[in-house]
Amino acid sequence: MVSGLIGLFVFAFLFFFKPFDFNILDYSKLEILGFGGITASVFTFFYCVLPLFNPHIYPEKQWSVPYEILLFVIILFCISTCNGLYINYLNNLDFSWGNYYWIIKKTYGLGLIPITIYVLADYSFKNNKTKHTADGLNKRTRRRDALKTSKRVTISSNLKDTSFVLDESQFLFAKSEGNYIEINTLNEPVKVYRLNLKELDHQIQSNYLLRCHRSYLVNLVRVERITGNAQGLKLYFPGGLKVPVSRKYINQVRTQLVDLVG
Fold first, then answer.
1. Residue 111's CB: how many other CB atoms inside 10 A?
2. Which member of 27, 152, 182, 205 lies 3.0 to 4.6 Å from 31 by CB, making a disulfide possible if both were Cys?
3. Is the pLDDT of residue 133 over 90?
4. Cα–Cα distance, 66 to 124 (Å, whole number)
């Protein structure tokens, strides 16, 4: 949907404003629409097709304004390359490094400014939205003392005949490390067990524990404060420990806190 709108914008811009000597080259509406189709196709490939083969191509931890601008620079390079081939096809031209440089220069000249404006505006929107969410959740964290529990659960690990007892009232969070998890608790050193987060969550079955990231399972009752930026939320625990919340888990964290304290 978004890729299609971007493609239509490119078509409309080229058709009505006629930059890059389009007033001289005799292109039909359908041929100009081809440039919009190329743009839409490249965006679709990068944002819809490529993630199917590599879901981690846009990692949350690496997202930043420079990272996204770099991504758009690569996308513009692909668009300009395809546009150059398309122009050669329309005009029956052989490949020329001069023409190739011309189309790259024109494409970047047209695309870099609006893309930079978009990325900065997008960053500001995400940053403000997540900070607002963090402020709202911080008000709720101050009303959870009565929810603390002394529930103790025996957890079976993946090592034969090996188990351990987890005191939910002392549990802060678990971090995934390959086939193992690190258990962080109050006033105790970090302990490592052969287990994964899904199995731990299934065995505890607690209303207070929640997956907030593909690598973390947290005890919401023990969260002391919450901060937020464009990349997502961060949960702070006793001892200055902090855990990231991926953007896709923000709504779940918020909903769970609302359910716990009303």
1. 18
2. 27
3. no
4. 14
Calculate the alpha carbon distances from 101 to 80, 94, 235 in Å: 9, 14, 48
* Ranges of each domain in the chain: 2-132, 142-261
Asked if the model's pLDDT at residue 146 lies above 50, the reply is: no
Beta bridge pairs of residue 165:
154
The helix (H) or strand (E) run that includes residue 153 is strand 152-156
Query: Collapsing DSSP states into helix, strand and coil, what is residue 233?
Result: strand
Query: What are the tokens at 227?
Result: 């901060």
Structure tokens at 182: 């690190």
* Average pLDDT over the chain, rounded to an integer: 80
Strand 191-194, strand 152-156: pairing:
unpaired
DSSP-assigned letter for residue 157: -
Please say whether the structural domain 142-261 has been given the CATH code 3.40.640.10: no
